[in-house]
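**Protein fold record**
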Amino acid sequence: MWRLQERLLFHGLSGNRRFVYAYMRREFRFKLRLISLVVVIAALCIIARLYFLQIVDGEEYVLRAERQYQNREDVFDRGSIYFTRKDGTLISSAAVSSGFRIALDVRQVTNAEDAYAKLSEHIPLEEAVFYEAVEKTQDPYEVLMTRVSESAGEAIAKLDIPGVIVERERWRSYPTAEKAASAIGFVAYDETNTITGRYGLERYYEETLSREHSGLFGNFFAQLFANLENVTGDARSVKEGDVITALEPMVQEKLLHVLEKVTSMYGSRTSGGIIMVPSTGEIVALQSYPTFDPNDFRNSDPNLFGNPLVEHVYEFGSIMKALTMTAGLDAGVISPGSTYTDTGCKTLNTKRFCNHDLKARGVTGMQDVLSHSLNLGVAYIAEQLGFSRFREYFKKLGFDTETGIDLPSEVRGQMNNLDGEIAVEFATASFGQGIAVSPIEMIRALGTLANEGQIVTPHLARAIRLENGIEKKLLWGKPERVFSKEAVAETTRMLVEVVDKELAGGTVSIEEMSVAAKTGTAQVAGPEGGYEAGTYFHSFFGYFPAFSPQFIILLYTREPQGVQYASETLTHPFMELTEFLISYYNIPPDRAPARETSQP
């Protein structure tokens, strides 16, 4: 204060009390604001800390509490995998369940009969198993039962039975069971005796789903700002979160039911299906059959653990014709009004190939090529394209590359026979023989017809929910153009006519909804080369509403018995799925029904 007065005197202002008071008020307001700022920062810190204690680290406190029962190993923890219902709500498909493990310290058992009587009141314990454990006097620790419910475990703990050990146990559970089992996968011990994801999303997103807790009282500011960067590129780089998929539980259940019915009805070796949103590549259902229950994988056929939809390749047959037709239209070597002379059979490079019915149709138009699935018709288009252009289109469709789907062990298609310039190889490839691709590659390529000629990356996961509660959407790249919109529109128009007039004689067409679809029947190569007589691979694809598609469906069934053509095995399953999706998603009609005319 004296310094202030000295300054005022120096300037001849010592008598100016108003100036003094104004200066003091400014100084007081500054101190008050400073104190308020400190209080606000402290409050925010407390709120943030409470958020992390209750929300982010709440699970860790649960684990600590559970360790009161645990004395042999760390408590298991892992992120969850979710299906997404059509309304956006989540349903768990892979979670961590909690319960108890009941064991014996044989040395401490004082009354075996009494111990067994008390235990059997709460758990279904076989008497022989119990007394066999009791007799192992040289082994102090014998597990009697695992995955005991919360209520039973707590009741047994309260009995305090001499020699009975009650330990908290957590394990991986799969509430959706067989639905999308090969896509979800499961966890198991690896070669280093560590529990890790072994198949499906569990393996692909191992780094995201696995948990390495480093303690509760670290730098919570580091937690607060962890993983706030945009999630792009490889989603597996995101640490410690839950995986949210686009798989819809009701659609997945319906697809499983349809595939089970097809396989059973025709005695097929295997069947499979994919339902995808063509504009984004999101997969809402993906299933192979036979399948397995990941909750009981130890008693399942290990040959079912892999995912044939991404790990196996097949010759798909005539559904490839839709792509060959579109390539010809896009390149301008044909038009919808083009014709060719159909001779029924043709020989190239000393090899003969024919239409499925061996019939020669003479002068034939492009619509008939798809309506009657004519091998010679698409071979004509391949010839007009030439070797290099045909090869370029098939490469742009990704038949020799991985799709980038977020599932492990993906294989790439086999189209090596198009590396040279052998005319018959290009002719057979035009109708889906001689080149083998995976189902996921096939639906990615066919998806261009339902997405204005653009190819997308098929994927299951749509977001990662981080441990701090933030949900990060995953980016899967931009669509790339393969065909022009005009070429795709022309092919779509032809495929709609296939459904309206030819498929099952036109009896399955939907009056108020345009559906574009095509069947495929391919011969199956034998183990020693060549095709096996009477053995077929059936496929079917379609999308709807045809000119503004919401879904594209791909189905296949391998080696059905007693039938030759895919139109016999897969037409009705496809239409069943189509009608289900239209109803379930309330998709509005895209064309008016024909009016009935009344007689005067």
